[in-house]
Amino acid sequence: MMKRWMWIVFAVIIAVGVGSYSYTRYRLQEESYADEMRTGERALKNHDYSLAETSFTHASRTRASNATAQRYLTQAQTYVDGTQAMNNRKFSAAKQDFTTVKTTKHGSTTLIQQAREQLTLLQKIQDKRKTYQQQYQQALTLNKANEFTDSNVVIATLLKDKTFKQRYYQDIRKNVLTLRKQNNASLKTLTGSVPALPNTAQSIAGTSGAQSSPSQNGQTKQNSQANSSSSSTTASVANGASGTTSPSASSSSNQIQATRAELNEQGVDASQYSDAEIQAIIQRAAAQHLSLAQAVKTMNQSSDQIQATRDELSQAGFDASQYTDAQIEAILQQASSQHMSIAQAAKSLQ
After folding, report:
1. At residue 27, does pLDDT exceed 90?
2. Straight-line distance from the first to the last Cα atom of the chain, in angstroms, rounded to the nearest whole number
3. What is the mean pLDDT of residues 19-48?
4. Which of 74, 111, 209, 270 could form a disulfide with 205 if both were Cys (CB 3.0 to 4.6 A apart)?
């Protein structure tokens, strides 16, 4: 009888011990699971997705029957895949991954919010890429029309955009840099040097270049080239010669100094020209795809022609002093295009 009671007591002790052990183990597992989940959530908020994946993996192994940890782990892995896809410019795959994360039922609210933000960023990137690609196509169209300087103006605007340096646009940027290299090589072959780009042209390209279509821009540039000796162009040259500069033709003092230095290197005494005349030289070089030295030469020839025209007008009975240099150039253009004498051209423009 005594032995029977001893066995009963012994069995009870064992049962209590096993139960206590099981409960303790269960409690430790629950604490471990909760700790891993909290660590994973903190890691997500800190954008430490490697730690988050590790924590959720441990949590899923601790409580295999609980689907939450596995769901968070899958979400985190999909989010990382989307980020990598976007960095590699695989935007369709990135959009699909972020959409999957955002629409996960009972998923991590942190990841859902971050996925929404990434989808918004992705849309902005795609819009930017569309704009940059249009500007590149505009520059390419100008290149094919042999408008190399104008193509470089569009390219310069692109390269000044700090956003354009981001990894999402590197493929377009590579094409742009290659096109600029081609433009410069063509200009050097044609003129012996690469003409300076005036600040005016860069400002115009920055405000309107991205909005105009390549075909419209190319036509405008061709018309401008065809009328390079028109009164608007000569007016700016005349302003430069007389010491006045319109706001749209202004150049920075640094650019003027650089132009003077380049002229001296090319054998031209730049000290004989005023700042306004240097600005006019820059404009002529850009408009007519000339080197700076060639622009100076053509301007000198233009000055001699203007003086000869004044003399001819005086001989024909006109008061030549009443005409500005720009008006004299307009008379010359009218006489040439309409096959008139200088006197007839002057009368027709009165």
Report:
1. no
2. 142
3. 79
4. 209
Task: Look at residue 32 and tell me if it is in a domain.
Answer: yes
Domain range for 33 is 24-107
- Dump the DSSP string for 44-77: HHTT-HHHHHHHHHHHHHHTTT-HHHHHHHHHHH
Are 284 and 313 a contacting pair, CB within 8 Å? no
- Residues for the chain: how many in total? 350
pLDDT over threshold 80, residue 248: no
Which pLDDT score, from 0 to 100, does residue 237 have? 35
Whether 281 and 259 have beta carbons less than 8 Å apart is answered as yes
Tokens of 108: 């991590």
Q: How far does Cα 28 stand from its chain's mean position?
A: 56
Q: How many domains does the chain have?
A: 2
pTM check: above 0.85:
no
What is the rounded distance in angstroms from the CA atom of residue 339 to the CA atom of residue 109?
A: 80
Residue 94 lies in a domain: yes
Distance set, CA 250 to CA 31, 131, 207, 240, 278 (Å): 72, 28, 16, 10, 10
